[in-house]
Design brief:
Helix content: 10-25%
Order of helices and strands: EEEEHEEHEHH
Radius of gyration: 24 Å
Structural class: alpha+beta
Strand content: 35-45%
Mean pLDDT: 87
Shape: extended
């Protein structure tokens, strides 16, 4: 599938594995940070290991910026703490997750939760990524006025028959 993104930013993702205090899961996973650029490490390289936690470089993702989503990017940037949404998909083998996506669009981040099986979490947006997103919004944002649709009143719709509903034997045949 061809991307319609006008800008693409390479980003690396760091995830944390924490020992779970549960009988149903041995470990809990969560993304903890994103950095701009490409890393020289291979995906799932251990970065730091301690008794209860470990940090891993999960891999490389591409943040795609689309001109139709600039209002969402702008809202994210003007929030108290701009965020990136990191999406990990469970695998049946080791490593237990694959890096699926990183996005600056809150609506897209929320949409990734619809499957119910993805691990979706937010991390703070690094300043260098925020600057690129801000420049993209400044260059491509077009304010679109909200147009409220006018609805017909109930009386008008009762008075006017809907010809789409006519069936044979109901006065609609000629």
């Amino acid at each position: 599938m061809r991307s319609t993104a006008l800008a693409k930013l390479p980003a690396g993702v760091v995830v944390e594995r924490r020992r779970a205090k549960s009988v149903w899961a041995q470990f809990l996973w969560r993304p903890v940070s994103v950095f701009a650029g490409k890393a020289s490490a291979v995906p799932w390289t251990a970065l730091d290991t301690r008794a209860e936690t470990a940090l891993f470089y999960a891999g490389q993702a591409t943040i795609e910026l689309h001109r139709t989503e600039t209002s969402y990017y702008r809202d994210n940037l003007t929030s108290a703490a701009p965020k990136l949404w990191v999406v990990l998909r469970a695998t049946a083998s080791d490593p237990p997750y694959e890096l699926l996506a990183v996005t600056a669009d809150p609506a897209e981040g929320e949409a990734f939760t619809d499957s119910g099986s993805n691990l979706v979490d937010t991390v703070p947006m690094p300043r260098d990524i925020a600057e690129v997103v801000d420049q993209f919004v400044a260059s491509h944002h077009v304010e679109r006025p909200f147009v409220r649709r006018r609805r017909e009143s109930a009386e008008a719709s009762i008075a006017k028959p809907d010809h789409r509903l006519r069936r044979a034997g109901q006065g609609g045949e000629k």
